[in-house]
Amino acid sequence: YLYDFWNDCFTGRLKGSGTLRQKLRGSEARMLSVHKVQDVPQFISTDRHVMQGYLDLAEKPKWQKELGVLEGVSTVVANDSYELVLACNGRIPVSVQVSEGEADLGWKDQQEGIAVLTLKTAENADVRWKVRFE
User: Fold this and answer.
1) I need a labelling partner for 19 at 20 to 30 A (CA). Which of 36, 48, 130, 132 fits?
2) Average pLDDT, stretch 77-102?
């Protein structure tokens, strides 16, 4: 999976033996996250930092097979919406639980199965989140 941070969009899939080529305009920069496609729902990006999860994921997302849940912990800044981009891999996200604050579950690209989880808190917090899939 490829996700473009600066343009906030799913760029697509690329085989490991493939070649990625993109044209950039003058003074343009790109920061792409690259994740191996799994057979279960997975995290592919966040909107907090160009490292796309490396700094803001306090606990890396893990798939809980027996519960059908993808869960993790994100460091959220007070009153600033935070987005996690998820590849659903053939499953449908149906609900979300958070340890504090508000959460919204929607689509970035429904046709490609790319969902978005938005978190917001009144105070700076490490928010534990769980997204249930069917």
Assistant:
1) 48
2) 97
